[in-house]
Amino acid sequence: MAETKSLIKDSAIYGGTTILVRMINWLMTFLLTRALTPADFGLMSNLYAYAALAIVLLTFGMETGFFRFASQKDKYNPKTVFSTVLIIVTAIILVAFVVFQVFLPDIRPYIWEDNAPEIYIRFVIIILCLDSFSAIPFAYLRYQKKAKKFGSLKLLFVILYAGFCIFFLVICPWINKYQPQLISWFWIEDFELGYVFVSNLIATTIENLCLVPDLTGFKYKFDKSLAVKLLRYCFPLVLMGVAGISNQVFDKIIFPFIYGDSSMAFDELGIYSACFKIALIMIMFTQAFRYAYEPFIFEKSKDTDAKQSYADVMKYFVIFGLLIFLGVVFYLDIIKYFIDEEYFGALGIVPVALLGELFFAIYANLSLWYKLNDKTHWGAVFSILACIIIVLINVIFIPVYGYWACAWAVFVGNGFIMLLSYFIGQREYPVKYDLKTIGIYSCLAMVLYAISYFVPIENEWAHMGFNTLLIAVYILFLLKRDLPLKEIPYLNRFINKQ
Fold first, then answer.
1. Which residue, among 478, 209, 173, has the nearest Cα to 321 in the 3D structure?
2. Is residue 324 within 8 Å of 379, Cβ to Cβ?
3. Residue ranges of the alpha helices (H) in 112-146?
4. What is the DSSP string of 277-315?
5. Distances from the Cα of 247 to the Cα of 49, 368, 409, 417, angstroms
6. DSSP alpha helices (H): ranges in 36-117?
7. Which residues, 6+ apart, have CB-to-CB distance to 31 below 8 Å?
């Protein structure tokens, strides 16, 4: 019982911290779209997309490998596993760092032409190397069940990053306007994107320094036989990780190469990336759900009514996911001011992106069948299939439809693996999902969205008032059919008293 309570507590810290960090990062878009030009925002998205892919390669799946072998205490000393993993990752990072730094002048013209100043790329290289290195000490903190320290450092990073961005992008320009002599010794004009990377670098460096105590106090030992086993074990994880992260960032990497007008490629990418940030509302909702749902899957699996519980959870998850979809698209006239007006051109992709992310969340919930059956290789299969679809759609259609192809690629790719996982899952681990109810709410949401889209109301406030009535229809239908007020705790007591 004590272990279960500890697991729940740690999951709450990890989950809550991750969601809060994502929320702060998401809110930073309000500042960044006002401080950066669309071209700079597009370049930032492009460079961070490369960094996200590079981190998967540099860490080489060693976080999972560490947990796998450190848990075998009868065979391996956890500290030996940790030091072996850390030495492997450090060696990979050092080789990559030297290669990147030495050959950057040669490869930069072929990838970014003159759009990315070399100093920006060097900043990102240092940041991704530090992030890759810190991944292993953070895994060690999780292994030691130091959830509070883990969460505190993650929060410290994002607070420092946000704070330095505000200092460099808001406070310094104000000082430069009225008292320029105070900051003339370090301030550089027209270096806004550079200061975003500087803020990230400072915060990442401080975060790494805070991990130093966890890197000392024991003797480092490199176990060659263990290293070989780790590399063999982690190699498939790297392939799976590359496929998974490519699904998220490939469009931002490939866009500048194949967009028809190369002079406008980064501007268009910046506009698309900013508007896609609005769709992250769906990701934050689903991430919060998954942190609670994944432990529930395994805890509930031994119960006789487990499959019915899974079906009920899926039904309500889709219902509330669609409610979030309607809430965002119906109030987009207000939410859109989260980004600067200069980025409004791609607002049309928001509904498509929201549904694409909802499809992925449903797929993640359906994945319980291969997790419970220990057939996790299916996760790699689905990731690779989605990656192939997304890559093909982007490569074929970006030259014709621009960023619309990016949004529809996510929609189609995630939708495909959602359906495929459902049909294979019904064969391997059949769960009687309430498809009728899910279908009814899906149709209702789409009908309400269509009414809102096609009814011509020019005034924004009148349009939102009309949309409020539409969303009220959805909520009233939910309360009447599947969530009667009398079944809600506390409200039930109130109703009975009346």
1. 478
2. no
3. 118-143
4. HHHHHHHHHHHHHHHHHHHHHHHHTTSTTHHHHHHHHHH
5. 11, 21, 9, 12
6. 38-59, 62-70, 78-111
7. 165, 166, 169, 170
Give me 177's structure tokens. 């306007």
Please name the amino acid found at residue 265: A
Contact 297, 315 (CB under 8 A): no
pLDDT digits (tens, 9 = 90+) for 289-326: 665 665 556 565 566 777 787 888 888 889 989 999 99
- pTM reported for the whole predicted model: 0.84
- How large is the C-alpha radius of gyration of the chain? 24
Written as six digits, the tokens of 48 are 């961070």
Show the tokens assigned to 289.
Answer: 């759900």
Residue 192 dihedral angles phi and psi, to the nearest 5° = -60, -50
CB 241 within 8 A of CB 56: yes
What's the Cα-to-Cα distance from 313 to each of 307, 316, 365, rounded to whole Å? 10, 5, 9
Q: Nearest to residue 255, comparing CAs of 39, 64, 4, 5?
A: 39
Task: Please give the Cα distance from 188 to 56 (Å, whole number).
Answer: 33
Amino acid identity for residue 316 in this structure: Y
Give, to the nearest 10 degrees, the angle between helix 192-210 and helix 147-166.
160
Alpha carbons 401 and 418: distance in angstroms, whole number: 25
**78-125 pLDDT per residue, tens:** 888 889 999 999 999 999 999 988 888 888 888 877 778 889 999 999
